Amino acid sequence: MKIIYSSDHKLHDPEWEKAHEKRVAHVERPERLITIVRALKEKNIGRLVSPTRFPFPALYKVHSKEYVAFLRKTCASLGEKDLVYPYTHSFDTYTPLRKGTYKAAKVAVDCALTGAEFLLNGESVVYSLCRPPGHHASWDMMGGYCYFNNAAVVADYLSTFGDVAILDIDFHHGNGTQDIFYRRKDVLYVSIHADPKVRFPYTTGFSSESGSGEGAGFTKNYPLPLGIGDTQYRDVLVRALKDVTVFQPSYLIVSAGFDTFQNDPIGGFTLTIPFYETIARDITALRIPTLIVQEGGYAVNDLGKIAVSFSKGLMIK
Length: 317
Ligand code: Q9C
Ligand code: ZN
Hints:
By secondary structure, this protein is an alpha/beta fold. The strands form two sheets. An eight-stranded parallel sheet has the order 4-1-5-10-9-6-7-8, with helices on both faces. Strands 2-3 form a two-stranded antiparallel ribbon. α6 links the parallel β6 and β7. α7 runs parallel beside α8. The protein is globular, with a radius of gyration of 18 Å. The site of N-{4-[(3-aminopropyl)amino]butyl}acetamide (Q9C) has 15 residues, from loops.
């Protein structure tokens, strides 16, 4: 299995975020991917491949040129130590810009697109280690630690070759991805996440949101109460995978967040490490060419083990 990775993600280090007017350590740290890559190497899992640089048109299908330019220019204007929370193009106070953020975010998109290229060339499962994550970013808004929506860019790109399903298993609802495809019937969005009444992003991800216009019925939300464990999660996963099967997509993109893990510092489900292998097996059992796109997951001490477990389930002959 090919694993797409670039160390350029380290250019984005959010360092701190605001919580009740105090500065607290930011959880979306470079150590997340460093740990995952180290563990995969140690266990000899997969083959690391560097992303190639893609031209901008694919990005401009999902994000406005004005937003992309705003990110590029704002980051370029910053000094090495600066950290700013912009007051336009942002919907929360968790998603800061640093000098290297734009470059890291662009490389994350390239990691996803490079993975897609391998699918088009006949690979069955590819794992793109994207960082920063993407599923909260919409047309011209950053938020939830996300700047460019890696999964959405790659879904739109692949949709020119056939129908695409996105399965989002991050702990949080992917409001950005949902928004981008809400009116489309050629990209199915299915998400399993924490009840938005109690967890970020709070205003989207309710089961009543199911798409509109031509896209009516092509968005499916499965919000779950906090405390959910392996068994209950799997029941819902099976239902969500059924939605994917019925849609019969040519490609499947998985927004894979590991913040569903029991010890995640900002999560609230109780999934165990071995269960990630089961999730991956259930996904690959569909036999649809599949791109895994890394989203959240903040239990830095266990992320390596989680990624190893998940990857074991991805490896099909
Ligand atoms: N101060 C992803 O998992 N809320 N984003 C955190 C803690 C924001 C998570 C509140 C959570 C965003 C990609
Ligand atoms: Zn998340």
